[in-house]
Amino acid sequence: MSLDRPIPRPLLSDEVFHRLRDSIVRGELVAGEKVKDGELAVRLGLSRTPVREALVRLAEIGLVEAKPGAYTRITTLNRRDVEKTLAVLRSLDRLAIETAVPVMTDQDLERMREANRDFERAVAADDTTAALAADDRFHAVPIAAADNPVLSRIVEQLHPQIHRILYRKFSTLLGGRNTIEHHDQLIDVCAGGDARAAAELSGRHWSERGGHINELFDTDQFTESAIA
Length: 228
Known about the structure:
By secondary structure, the protein is mostly helical.
């Protein structure tokens, strides 16, 4: 497991944060699992301080929950929290695209096309990690073009919550032609310069994804036994 590799001394807290975050997203650290800073520090070959700092940051973005003196554990996948996160991400993505389209360059559009080609190859190879990375690169283009640091920071904080679900149910939520075709359509609308239409198209896609996620909750596919 990637958690067991020693971490170089520089930027320890950031590295621990990213490694633990990715382990939670991939399900290596399971929803509801209790974690102890001392045990994690031993596995990572570190002192407790950077591990504690990383756990605090993970709690701030909702991946870890703690009750002082009782436990620190990986948060469970909660429908209400997921719905709220999706609603915020949908609004932020619409804002980013509507702001970005008037200033997007040919280079921006080509980066989106390249990311979607990478996404399509990852889907064909059933490579969930590569597909999610390509999907992130795709959506990062308009977010960067919007040039709003606050928006970028909030999106970065919220993404891991949704990635936990996308990673577990990739084939249902991202793996079909629908997302590839949506990406192509969005690129075309952005290239045409219609910011409002592009934002509406993106919003519909987020709503569709939210509907699929709700169906998975309805069928109890995010219980601890289902993702252990």
